[in-house]
Amino acid sequence: MVDRIDRALAEAVAGGDVHGVVAAAATDTGVIYQGAHGVRAVGDRQPMTPDTVLRLFSMTKAITAVAAMQQVERGKLSLDGPIADVLPQLAKPQVLEGFDAGGKPILRAARSPITLRQLLTHTAGFGYENWNGDIQKYMQVTGLPGLTTGKLESLNAPLTFDPGTRWQYSISIDWAGRAVEAVSGQDLEAYFRQHIFTPLGMQDTSFRLRPDQQARRATPHARQPDGTLQTMTLVRSEEPEFLGGGGGLFGTIPDYLAFLRALLAQGGGLVKPETFAEMARNNMGDLFVETLRTFAPAMSLDANLFPDIPQKWGLSFSINTRATPEGRAAGSLAWAGLGNLYFWVDPTKRVAGVWGTQILPFCDTRSVKAFKAFETAVYDSL
Fold first, then answer.
1. Of the residues 126, 265, 290, 349, which has the maximum number of CB atoms within 10 A of its CB?
2. Which entry of 33, 128, 138, 169 is annotated as an active-site residue?
3. Which stretches within the chain are classed as H helix?
4. Is 61 in the active site?
5. What is the pLDDT of residue 368?
6. pTM over 0.90
7. Is the dihedral of CA 153, 155, 161, 162 positive or negative?
8. What is the 3-state secondary structure (H, E, C) of 307-329?
9. Active site residue 169
10. What percent of the chain has pLDDT over 90?
């Protein structure tokens, strides 16, 4: 079993698909694989190891969603009440309808309030500059800072449609994180530490890195036109004004597997089984997940891992409505991180897996191929 999965990682490195990778998988009875291949940086001999620290990017979102649902269980947050009850900044959302002849944004009041359920399903109306040209233009003409600046003002973007009418991948989980902070009285670092990381033994996951974690970090890489990988610098604020529940965490793959194992155990004590069941079902009604069309090709290609399979959204995961070629059962939960990190939780076949690299652009063809080879090897080994 281990040899087959290990071979998938080794072949990905040997073929130049990834510079280095850490991956792990577990069933409901325990860990079945944990391994690393390659190096932390091209041109460096420092090997990738299971304790290599990665920027998790949007794999942060699932953790923030669990925190939000803990607060729903405590009666501090409501899934369907106006989120403005705890985040008054969202009391009067504006919808961007376009731009006038002079390039000035055309805004109108949203037709309905924003809810936590909409934030967790990316149906609130927010967007991301990487995948929405109107948001990108709005930032250019108004001077709105981007998320990478770490400025709280970066969250003050308009909606691009009325709440509940579409799906669009977005900054909405950052707002959900702000809601957790508002009702708990703790910042996300302290809250996650107390209610998620410490109970699961996730000692290497944090918004703020210790010196020993900095020494174990993998370097970001960019895919070049000739297919090779080169190291790059990601300019992000080291002193952010807010902790990004949508993508701010660093961590290790073994830590993240501990989180996935809790989900595989119907919440694993983090949330009640009935709460996890709510998180794992379709929460977007008749809407469907849409392909992410890139407006920043250096950061992301067009992204849809299963373009031929209709996908729904839970709280907060993608849900494939049919079985995948790799072996994932219908109804599995999954998502990813910008640096070509991917995870899945398959409640039907009782298996979860996670794949971690630091490669841009997101949905890089060779990275996705390597991840799918790993996932196939996991299912073939069951």
1. 126
2. 169
3. 2-14, 60-73, 116-121, 133-142, 172-184, 188-192, 198-200, 211-214, 253-264, 273-279, 365-381
4. yes
5. 98
6. yes
7. negative
8. CCCCEEECCCCEEECCCCCCCCC
9. yes
10. 97
Vertex 177: Cα angle to 134 and 339 (nearest 5):
65
Half-sphere exposure of 150 (CA within 13 A, CB side): 12
d(CA 34, CA 367): 18
Domain chopping of the chain, boundaries: 2-71+186-381, 79-181
Q: Would you tell me how many other CB atoms lie within 10 Å of the CB of residue 150? A: 18
Task: Write the secondary structure of 142-187 as one string of H (helix), E (strand) and C (coil).
Answer: HCCCCHHHCCHHHHCCCECCCCCCCCCCCCHHHHHHHHHHHHHCCC
Name the CATH superfamily for 2-71+186-381: DD-peptidase/beta-lactamase superfamily (3.40.710.10)
pLDDT in tens, 288-318: 999 999 999 999 999 999 999 999 999 999 9
Give pLDDT, residue 135: 97
Catalytic one among 33, 61, 138, 316? 61
188/42 Cα distance (integer angstroms): 33
- Alpha-carbon span 9 to 377, nearest angstrom: 10
Choosing from 33, 58, 138, 170, the catalytic residue is 58
Eight-state DSSP code of residue 352: E
Is 318 known to be catalytic?
no
